[in-house]
Amino acid sequence: MNKKTDSAPMSDKTFKKRSGSKSDTIYAHIFDAILEHRLAPGTKLSEEALGEIFGVSRTIIRRELMQLAHEGVVSIRPNRGAIVANPSVEEARQILYARRLVERAITELVVQNATDKQLKALRELVKEEQDCFAEGESGTGIRLSGEFHLKLAEVANNMPLVGFQRSLVSQTSLIIAQYEKVTRSHCSFDEHNELLDAIEARDTDRAVSLMMHHMDHIDEKLSFENDGATDDLHAIFSHIGQSRAKTGSK
User: Fold this and answer.
1) How far is CA 97 from the centre of its chain?
2) Contact 145, 10 (CB under 8 A)
3) Which of 90, 155, 211, 241 has the fewest Cβ atoms within 10 Å of its own Cβ atom?
4) Domains in the chain, ordered, with CATH?
5) pTM here?
6) Distance CA 163, CA 211 (A)
């Protein structure tokens, strides 16, 4: 996922591939690792280790971490460095409440503004999400689920909501990684398809009701107990080193 400013709309290719500068790609890899739950809340993000992994200076890594901190998924601690944000129970509840308000507004606007072309693109994204879970690629499926909600915000055609939603979706992913119950069920793609049916029918009340049910489903999966991943940055980003070795990057 390419890095975007809060005011810049996301292109149709945002959810298909990464592009842009090396800095954008570093941002995307770290962001995806958080959304895919490969980076657990509280994980220390060593500038030195990340610089070695991506083959760039600590200055570049620091800039990317600052951008992620702006979105609420990284915490910068004075004199102690950066960590993946670690929301408290109260912070988690506040984030989820805010997410509900934003999702409601976005859904209402999507019903009004969505074009046939945009709805088709959303259907394709949900199909890709479903395929990932079916093939056991749950991390990618989780990320695509979040991207579905970001794409809805774009379709709503309200740029402030895009910025709010990007931060809230990212923080919600952290909350799920930290507090989700051990027994997991991923049926978001079914709920996403039902939501798209209501949007296509221009049924605002049903669309909003389905979105709130979707948020209920997220809440029901949380137990507010830790369920973290590894904190070994080299293991998390091992594919980066393999890619750099193949291309001869320094």
Assistant:
1) 17
2) no
3) 90
4) 22-40+42-85+229-247 (1.10.10.10), 89-220 (1.20.120.530)
5) 0.73
6) 19
